[in-house]
Amino acid sequence: MKTEGKIQPFNDSHYADFVDLINQIYPQHPTSIIGEKHADRTREKKMYIQRRVVYNNNTLSAALVIEQWEDTYHPDKYVMNIFVHPEHEQKGMGKLLYNYMEELLLPRNPVKITSEVWEPHIQSIRFLKRRGFELAATEKECRIDLQKYDPKVNREKIDRILKSGFHLITLSQFRQKDKEADKKIWEFEREVAPDMPWTDEITVQDFPVYKEQVLQHPKFEPRAWLLALKGDEIAGLNNLWKSNVKKEMNNGLTGVRRKYRRQGVATALKHTNLKWAKNEEFHSVKTENESTNNGMLNINIEAGFEFIPSWLYFEKTKF
Ligand SMILES: CC(C)(COP(=O)(O)OP(=O)(O)OC[C@H]1O[C@@H](n2cnc3c(N)ncnc32)[C@H](O)[C@@H]1OP(=O)(O)O)[C@@H](O)C(=O)NCCC(=O)NCCS
Fold first, then answer.
1. What single-letter DSSP state applies at residue 143?
2. Domain 142-308 has CATH 3.40.470.10
3. Tell me: the pLDDT tens digits for 89-98?
4. Is the minimum distance from the CB of 264 to ligand 1 under 6 angstroms?
5. Ligand 1 within 6 A of CB of 237
6. Can you tell me the distance from the alpha carbon of 107 to that of 208, in angstroms, rounded to the nearest whole number?
7. Which residue lies with its CA nearest to atom 12 of ligand 1?
8. Which of 67, 110, 222, 319 would disulfide-bridge 171, Cβ 3.0–4.6 Å?
9. How far does residue 276's CA lie from ligand 1's centre (Å)?
């Protein structure tokens, strides 16, 4: 049912329109029906989720999503995003959905509500600031043009790591030689991911959930999950994910166990994967890092990534 002008609950019939709406707002960062459905299918029961949609002239003109992030889960912390179709801006839709969000969330006594804004969307920044939200974190996004990237220049950075006893292997290959490969990857992520700077402590979901959410994600590409092994131990990881942007991949986690840091492992992993992506005829790789993550930002810029607009995280903690 597409009831005109009314706030209505999201259901299966809304996926296509919802994805179209998001892609109108963020054409450079498109989502997909398959991706949205995967997230919904694999979400843990404890996670709060509410979605509402509004139709005008038979077009999905606005949507509200209130959720909780798996990797920073806290029962009283929420994430809310309002999406207004560019042709329906400045008609009060944002305000309508914001007030509705408050009606749903305030009785639950939230300790924090976070909202994500793309830096060029200055109207969204103004909207949140007026409602008491403050900037809490900036994820700097960078992109590398693989057509300009020359793997030969960086060969020595990879050789150095190989000579010092690290072995570089993809997850596809690691799975062939070690039955526990998936479990080892998860244990590695559990150890390293909390070192990423963020507003809240980062946690990695339990293994059964991780297997479904991460290792069976439609964008998962085990040939581009590159591990640095020291003996049987995973010392470092760099993973690339498929993207909804043609000829592009996204860099997910780059991580190195503490005892192996500052030896060039992350740099070697990054260049090996960039070379792989170029050989596979991808044109670009994008990545996002918190603005205080100097180590990772240095490595990316040094490799040839260039800054593009950031993602801003606004938080409200007083209600
Ligand atoms: C970021 C991280 C992956 C770097 O791994 P690493 O193997 O130690 O990095 P490298 O040895 O290849 O570093 C190469 C260069 O990057 C820069 N660099 C790396 N870590 C740095 C840090 N903590 N501070 C400042 N510069 C740093 C340096 O210029 C370094 O060269 P140098 O050691 O000769 O000075 C590692 O610190 C880590 O796992 N952090 C936690 C997870 C994380 O935040 N990942 C990024 C988000 S996905």
1. E
2. no
3. 999 999 999 9
4. yes
5. no
6. 33
7. 264
8. 222
9. 21
